[in-house]
Amino acid sequence: LVSVLSSAIIVYRLPWTWKCSKLLMKFIHAGLNTIAMILAIVSMVAVFDYHNASNIPNMYSLHSWIGLAAVIFYSLQLFLGFAVFLLPFAPVWLRAALMPIHIYSGLLIFATVIASALMGITEKLIFSLQNPAYKESPPEAIFVNCLGLLIVIFGALVLWMASRPHWRRPPEELPKAPRPNGGTSEGTEAESTMTDCSSADKPDVGFNSEAARKRNLKLDEAGQRSTM
């Protein structure tokens, strides 16, 4: 969950993916979340089987409570994400209303997963290290403590990328609405400017058209005389 879920969170935040279509990124986001959910279910089944085979009680520690809660809420998040944002049946207003909740709940689940992982590795060290004990800081304890610090730093970077506005995927440009005459809004403004200019020059246009009409009449008369 820590690695695959983080990839699903930041898949929209990578600049080299902004050129891809949003529908493609939706499928990648949903696919990564599905893979993370499958791996989480497999790992939980393995933990319960191991506890039952070793006569270890189930669901007694805070690590197990938070881990199970994270998986349950993650499954609900995945189901609502498919139903509302991936399938084309939900109305636009519903998507807009649920999007902030979807983002916040995803980040909250990711932080809960990190907390559960930290408690899990600490619990494993306390139970496994006997001689020397965990409190004596053997090399195994130092190694796992450093691993926990790296997990915290990694989670902080993912949350920072997901919360910064300049890492957000830019909105897609909407096509300009076509006009009845086939022009765009810029063309309409240009036409209105040309219309204003032409209306300002109406007396000159009228004078020129009258002179042209008289000139054409004289040419017609000359043509008729030549043919006669």
UniProtKB/TrEMBL annotation:
Q: Give the signal sequence positions.
A: none
* Keyword RNA-binding included in the entry's annotation: no
Q: Which UniProt keywords apply?
A: Cell membrane, Electron transport, Heme, Iron, Membrane, Metal-binding, Oxidoreductase, Translocase, Transmembrane, Transmembrane helix, Transport
Q: How does it sit in the membrane?
A: Multi-pass membrane protein
Q: Where in the cell is it found?
A: Apical cell membrane
Per the record's keyword annotation, is Membrane included, yes or no?
Answer: yes
Q: What is this protein called?
A: Plasma membrane ascorbate-dependent reductase CYBRD1
Naturally occurring in which organism (per UniProt) = Nothocercus julius
